[in-house]
Design a protein that fits this description.
With about 525 residues, the protein is mainly alpha-helical. It has a domain of about 260 residues: P-loop containing nucleotide triphosphate hydrolases (Rossmann fold, 3-Layer(aba) Sandwich). The protein is built from 25 helices and five strands. Strands 2-3-1-4-5 form a five-stranded parallel sheet, with helices on both faces. The chain is globular, with a radius of gyration of 24 Å. The relative contact order is 0.08.
Length: about 525
């Protein structure tokens, strides 16, 4: 390496670390003009592409770097991570395993590479493996709050709540303004009059001016005030934080109304066939409104010895988007629905099944628990005509309030409706109409299960559920607290306990704020 290239390389790294992407890019291009085989220049260009959310370009550049400098654990770990972020879990797992083998042979290991590999496994839903690498990362470098936050998240998902609590506290001790860590810590519960973070959280809420940060702190405050049964203050912080975020969004419920209308029209008026799909009964889908009991049902089914939980997969929707070749910025919209007429549904079904193989294939059946796959039911059954789809039906007030109370993935347009009680109500009504359409069109494949009946009579309801899935009854199916599979949803704590009805009628805590919701629901029923 020439002295000039060495200096340019150092300057590029420094610029990249400071977020000076244009400057870093210029340095890296200068390097490649002098030496087109300099592997790390391609790798650092990949990190610039990644910072700008261009995952495909990042993958291409990392592969180029890896071809010039094979067996680099950092390159392979980043390749695994980026494939995982693209939901290509099969390729992600392949490169993650390669990286893991190489890392195991090293005398000196990199905390950054270990953390990256942990993130890759976490993105694939393989949280037990992720924890292994996150723990090694923090053992080498205990001064990086991001590493501890990542460790805390995966510990929570595998049910190690005390370990997660310690990791989040460590994060906050190093970075008091790490807002996501405050929200995550509060989400572990254990709040009381004697143990809470309300004074600190209220100070943070006043000082933060960023909408996403305020969402995290607002939701944390709401949870803590709920635990203290001060529901007026809980609602105040929820509403204030959500309104602040909503002002930044260009969300309009009419977009969702157009989508739901296009789905209804497509399947009411168009000719479609369930005989042209990929013939396998492997997939079981659990769908519905978020926070309606989908995780509970997934736990019941995946307790069966013939079933594996694949978690919440975005694979099906992304494959539909890819195959329709629509260029709109939403994964599913009216344009994409119309374009499905040109899809090869057998190829779609086969591609979906193959895309799950990082986790599935070890048992005869698997569960995909992405709630808003309810939008894709008609397409799922065209692609996989033997699939079984279970849809949750929960008390509308509990569903609406629970969605409003939830901090979903920030900036994911799927959940924009949940920033306002009224739009949450309207979205629920759209969902309800769509679920009724699916039930009418696909009674042999689509099963509506009532959440309240399930938690009040779990054995009888679970038996009917298991029978619908064409599985034999096993007594342990209702012992969801013994299900050791990771849970990467907001229900991670609840489903570690036996089935109970403690969440029934939770809406009553916020009854004072629901007049508009009740009016909308009553009007819809009347019409």
């Amino acid at each position: 390496m020439s002295s000039t290239i060495k200096v340019l390389h150092q300057q590029a790294q420094q610029a990249l670390n400071q977020g000076l992407y244009q400057q870093a890019h210029q340095h890296l291009i200068s390097i490649l003009q002098q030496d087109k085989y300099f592997a790390d220049a391609y790798f650092l260009l990949a990190m610039i592409a990644s910072a700008h959310h261009n995952l495909a370009k990042a993958i291409e550049l990392i592969k180029q770097a890896n071809s010039l400098a094979p067996n680099n654990p950092e390159y392979l770990s980043q390749l695994a991570k980026h494939y995982a972020l693209e939901n290509n879990h099969v390729e992600a797992l392949y490169f993650a395993e390669l990286a893991a083998k190489l890392i195991a042979q090293l005398t000196v290991q990199s905390s950054l590479t270990l953390d990256t590999l942990g993130v890759a496994y976490s993105q694939m839903g393989l949280h037990e493996k992720a924890v292994k690498f996150f723990k090694k990362s923090v053992a080498i470098n205990d001064r990086n709050p991001n590493y501890f936050f990542n460790l805390g998240a995966s510990l929570k998902f595998i049910g190690d709540f005390e370990g997660a609590r310690k990791a989040y506290k460590k994060t906050i001790s190093m970075a008091p303004n790490y807002y996501k860590a405050h929200s995550a810590l509060t989400g572990l519960g254990g709040i009381s009059e004697d143990y809470n973070h309300i004074p600190l959280l209220e100070r943070l809420f006043k000082q933060t001016q960023h909408a996403d940060d305020r969402l995290h702190i607002g939701h944390a405050l709401a949870r803590e005030y709920e635990a203290l049964e001060d529901f007026d203050k809980a609602f105040y912080y929820l509403e204030t934080a959500k309104k602040f975020k909503l002002e930044q969004l260009k969300y309009n419920i009419d977009e969702d109304k157009t989508l739901f209308k296009s789905l209804a029209s497509h399947f009411k008026d168009s000719k479609y066939s369930l005989s042209q799909g990929f013939e396998t009964d492997e997939a079981i889908f659990v769908v519905g409104m978020p926070r309606s009991g989908t995780t509970l049902v997934e736990r019941i089914i995946s307790q069966h010895t013939d079933v594996t939980s694949a978690g919440e997969l975005q694979h099906f929707g992304l494959l539909v988007k890819k195959m329709t070749k629509t260029t709109s910025n939403r994964v599913i919209d009216a344009e994409t629905v119309t374009a499905t007429k040109d899809i090869n549904f057998k190829a779609l079904g086969k591609a979906y099944i193959e895309s799950t193989r990082a986790i599935t294939g070890k048992t005869a059946r698997f569960v995909d628990k992405m709630p808003l796959n309810v939008l894709y039911v008609g397409f799922i059954l065209q692609a996989l005509p033997k699939a079984k789809i279970i849809c949750l039906d929960r008390n509308p007030l509990d569903t609406i309030v629970s969605n409003f109370r939830q901090l979903f993935s920030v900036n994911q347009s799927y959940y924009s409706y949940a920033y306002d009680l009224q739009t949450t109500t309207e979205f629920y009504l759209l969902f309800k109409q769509l679920a009724e359409l699916w039930l009418a069109l696909f009674p042999d494949n689509f099963y509506l299960i009532n959440y309240e009946k399930l938690v009040n009579d779990p054995i009888n309801e679970a038996k009917q559920l298991i029978e619908f899935c064409d599985l034999s009854w096993q007594e342990q199916c209702v012992d969801i607290h013994q299900n050791s599979a990771p849970v990467a949803t907001a229900s991670a704590l609840q489903v570690r306990s036996p089935i109970n009805n403690r969440s029934v009628d939770n809406w009553k805590k916020y009854d004072a704020y629901l007049d508009g919701v009740k009016k909308s629901l009553a009007t819809k029923v009347d019409t």
